[in-house]
Task: inverse folding
């Protein structure tokens, strides 16, 4: 395991019983402080890393969250917010000297306003529950992470989550209109609102994707959209990954924005088919699922154009969904691709880098070479239309050295993404997984400026420390870090 976390503060550890007692006074029925029960919270979707929290608190009201934050702030206790714990970047990984603030009891849909097409929800509501609530009236919530059955909308806001339909409808940030957040000192503020207009600085834009570093989200106002008249999926097999990648580029270049355009390589196709029996062709090297939606006439026209582009790129097979059940079954394989790969490998690391679409064939070839260099298996599943890659690195944690090799392989993939003009993350966030690679993408000046924003919200660095930024700063010193006669100032500050 190569990712280091900040060393726990012994003084906080010594106060554990007092902290638990104080939290019990605030949430009498919602504190867990025995190791056996806390072990349910020791990791998130980034399961290679585990740590028991100091204590778990599960508030039910905004007033309780505010009081917890006031207490933690006054007593300099760190806090790690947590939704459903599905983060793949270790964002919700507990710290030994931090309170884990679980938001699962905030599970109510507070209001649906169909006239204005919004829903007001608590952060612990699952992503899919919003669609389930409104689908009877012909509406849905567009961002659809593959984890949507489990992940919370608060976690989606914190990670700016995406999904297979975000190519056309945007990520979480494009579908959230407002939030209520509790700041580190217990103050409650509202950002954004019920409409698209923002007053003042776009602080909502800062909070979406802030990975639990700026405050605790306690309410979310999301847009709901009317279901398109029709949606049809086209399943296209290709003899090479390059030809599939070129097809993606050509579809977009033709001015067509599908609702979703996903690619899987051969190992991922075989794993998904064996798991879900979606009817995927097994004789191809790459598979595209292209979904078109909208008015029926437009949809039919666009499907013909996409099919023609696929043929020009040498597609080896094409199948169009003829019923809603068939369309959903085509997506079921893709949405279950991660657990499907979990069936063929003891462990896997799910990477998340984004590249310019035209670089897809080049980067996939480089990933395949890197797999040989690191002597590990790889399966590729990704949001091809957005250039958002999810290489799944196959390894076995019980074999000495394999996790470290998998991590180095993952780092090489992400360095490659940045090198070709892409970015370190598409939707899973930085967390701890990509924290130490931040300097690959950002200069010291960039990172300092981002941390000044963090300091404006959280001057004592109590919210989710050790995540996102590769070293801790004290806010007062930020910007004045320089090496003088070979001496780094503030040598006591942890560099991970
Ligand atoms: C099988 C699988 C498939 C996935 N597919 C996708 C996908 O298609 N697209 C995608 O984007 N992601 C995907 N993910 C990743 C994950 O589901 C998302 O990042 C999701 O948004 C995390 O939500 P959560 O409720 O589980 O948050 P958690 O994992 O609990 O927390 C994630 C981060 O959010 C912060 N946080 C949580 N709640 C709050 C709150 N109320 N206030 C402030 N901060 C908070 C935490 O501190 C942490 O930093 C997948 C994960 C799995 C396991």
Result:
């Amino acid at each position: 395991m190569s990712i280091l976390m900040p060393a726990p503060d012994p003084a906080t550890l010594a106060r554990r019983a007092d902290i638990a007692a104080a939290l019990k006074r605030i949430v009498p029925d919602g504190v867990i402080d025995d190791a056996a029960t806390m072990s349910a919270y020791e990791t998130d979707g980034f399961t290679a890393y585990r740590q028991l929290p100091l204590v778990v608190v599960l508030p039910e009201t905004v007033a309780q969250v505010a009081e917890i934050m006031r207490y933690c702030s006054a007593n300099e206790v760190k806090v790690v917010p947590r939704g459903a714990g599905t983060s793949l970047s270790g964002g919700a990984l507990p710290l030994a000297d931090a309170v884990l603030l679980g938001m699962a009891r905030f599970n109510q849909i507070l209001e649906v306003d169909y006239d204005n097409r919004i829903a007001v929800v608590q952060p612990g509501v699952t992503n899919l529950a919003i669609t389930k609530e409104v689908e009877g009236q012909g509406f849905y919530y567009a961002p659809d992470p593959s984890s949507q059955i489990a992940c919370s909308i608060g976690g989606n806001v914190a990670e700016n989550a995406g999904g297979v339909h975000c190519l056309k409808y945007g990520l979480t940030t494009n579908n959230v209109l407002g939030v209520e957040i509790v700041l580190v000192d217990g103050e409650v503020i509202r950002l954004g609102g019920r409409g698209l207009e923002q007053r003042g600085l776009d602080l909502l834009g800062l909070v979406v994707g802030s990975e639990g570093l700026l405050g605790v989200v306690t309410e979310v106002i999301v847009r709901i959209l009317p279901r398109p008249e029709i949606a049809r999926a086209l399943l296209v097999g290709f003899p090479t990954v390059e030809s599939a990648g070129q097809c993606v580029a050509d579809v977009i270049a033709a001015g067509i924005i599908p609702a979703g355009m996903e690619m899987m390589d051969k190992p991922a196709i075989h794993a998904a088919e064996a798991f879900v029996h979606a009817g995927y062709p097994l004789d191809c090297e790459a598979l595209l699922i292209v979904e078109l939606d909208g008015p029926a006439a437009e949809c039919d026209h666009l499907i013909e154009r996409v099919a023609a582009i696929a043929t020009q790129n040498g597609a080896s097979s094409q199948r169009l969904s003829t019923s809603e059940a068939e369309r959903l079954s085509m997506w079921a394989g893709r949405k279950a691709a991660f657990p499907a790969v979990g069936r063929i490998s003891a462990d896997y690391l799910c990477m998340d880098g984004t590249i310019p679409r035209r670089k897809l064939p080049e980067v996939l070839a480089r990933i395949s070479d890197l797999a040989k260099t690191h002597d590990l298996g790889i399966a590729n599943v990704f949001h091809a239309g957005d250039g958002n890659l999810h290489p799944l690195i196959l390894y076995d944690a019980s074999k000495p050295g394999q996790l470290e090799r998998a991590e180095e392989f993952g780092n090489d993939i992400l360095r490659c993404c940045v090198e070709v003009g892409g970015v370190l993350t598409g939707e899973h966030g930085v967390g701890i997984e990509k924290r130490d690679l931040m300097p690959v993408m950002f200069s010291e000046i960039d990172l300092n400026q981002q941390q000044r924003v963090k300091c404006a919200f959280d001057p004592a660095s109590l919210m989710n420390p050790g995540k996102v930024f590769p070293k801790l700063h004290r806010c007062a010193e930020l910007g004045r870090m320089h090496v003088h006669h070979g001496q780094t100032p503030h040598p006591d500050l942890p560099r991970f």
